[in-house]
Protein 1
Amino acid sequence: MRVLVTGARGFVGRHLVAELDAAGHEAIGLSRCEDCPNPDANERVADICRREEMDAVIREVRPEGCIHLAGIAFVPVGWTQPRLVFDVNVGGALNLIEAIREHAPDCRTVVVSSALVYGAADPDRPRDERSPLDPQSIYAVSKVAADLNALLSARHHGLPVMTARPCNHIGPGQASDFMAPSFARQLAAIVAGRAAPLMRVGNLESVREFMDVRDVAYAYRLLIERGRAGEAYNVSAGCAVSVGAILEKLCAIAGVRPRVETDPARYRPTDRQPVLISEKLRRDTGWSPRFSLDQTLADIYRSVSAT
């Protein structure tokens, strides 16, 4: 299958392209020019916020599948630049779907949403795809809008479109402003003697689901192959841990026990995200996670230690 991957040069995109190629698909990456200054033969450059550019890409590539990753993924940006977040996350997804509807209406499409569409109220209650949507940030509202528009397009226009709602995912190659690679990079600097044995951290009490980005990429690949049009799919391994537990595991991997100091700039109020139920994904595609949390963290530490 010829599969267009938007945001292909991003954290998830690089893993997804590798997953698709390994499974025998032809992955065509789509990125912004600033992320892809020297595109290769299997890459295209376009701005998803420009409808005419999306039309041109879809007309040329004629994808049989499309996995839409491109967008603003850093939640705090929603509070500082809400218009930008809506233009990219909502308008960009709409431009893509409309271009596909006009030029490649048989293209199987996965629009990647977020677990944050469910909110964090009543965190002890697991969420399945029928649970109410309760976004609690500008970013999450943008994801709800893109998600529901994609599902509406499937119903109203008969397009083979579905959405994926992943929990937090981590792994090798993630930007260092995210929690796990930030911890790993600080520990690697301590081990190498480049920094004093002091960790600067945010709130260690918050509880999240964490799963390997490579398992998420695997889920997206199976959805493009076997998912049902018009359906939303949770992507989750069903295991939640505290941020403090992540730090403990990384300290054990690094073999050091530094002092820990709270950094007000990194601190957010304590919260717990509800666990997602991914039974529909498992049933429809046969997916199951392949990486343990310990393996993921070991791979993160190894990757930052090598840089």
Protein 2
Amino acid sequence: MSDFPSTNPGLPPLTPRDRAANPAWVDRGYRSTARRGPRETLVAVPPLASVVPAPDFSDVVVTEIDADLTRNGRMNGEPLGERIIVAGRVIDEEGRPVGGTIIELWQANAAGRYRHPVDDHDAPLDPNFLGVGRCRTDAEGRYRFVTIRPGAYPWRNHPNAWRPAHLHFALFGHHFADRLVTQMYFPGDPLLGLDPIFLSVPEHARDRLVARFDLDLTVEGYALGYAFDFVLRGPAATPWESA
């Protein structure tokens, strides 16, 4: 995974990401990193612009319903659970908007189960909820998803291990290797202080992964709103998954 290139033609290139805010390749508490983390010295990759042509996302069709997970998986009714709105901006370290970025979202349902063959959690699947969506940022870097608040689920990392409610996000840059992946958590979740994945992020950067309740984003009588910005680099950069 590489850094996003400059997204503002004519402006100075972006500085490298703050690696000190990202989780370590191998974290003692997060057991699976020991199996997938690199054991050898990392090798520098040449500039991607000279290796892989940049994809053009302008032709990718993204509709309003793609960003509404309460509608894009309906079979015979509404999905179960608490409706929420998650919205914010994608910006660089100077606060400049990053428009035209494709954002993917995937998550567990309200019972804490993913619609995926390997998820054997003893919790019900929701026939009206796929748990995936995508959108494209506008010229001001803004995005907005409507979805269902996910439930916590057991994950067998250690005895009585439960993952806090969270959303997975992937942002696509201008090259095929420019895919930044992160997670968003909810404020006040008592499981945050017990979760090795959340705790693998250096302490000074953990709050950057916790959304902020925002009454202005809330739709009266319909869904609560949460604000969450993606900052690509700089001292306030969003922590990104390293492996």
Protein 3
Amino acid sequence: MAQKKKTDPIADLWNKLPPYLRNRYFLALVAFSFFMVFIDRHDIATQFRLHSTVERLEDDLQRYDDLIDEAEAEKLDMEANRETFAREGYFMQKDDEDVFIIVEEGEEER
């Protein structure tokens, strides 16, 4: 009787792969790439979150710059019209004049 030769199915599968896929340098490159893309501290998901955070912070910076510009314009206007601001905002008056405050119905007093 002839004995059947036992073959290892994993070795057969390994030998069916093209030679470049069996190369240890190629396998090391694939393992390194997988590690860098999915497992490393600076993986793709982390980079995406950081990019989103940077964009949000840049938007906030632009919004705050606009608010600062508006506040500076208001400050310049207030300094130029100091008397008008004091009279209308705080009901101030000169010594020789009387101020009458008229409040319409539905308006609250300041």
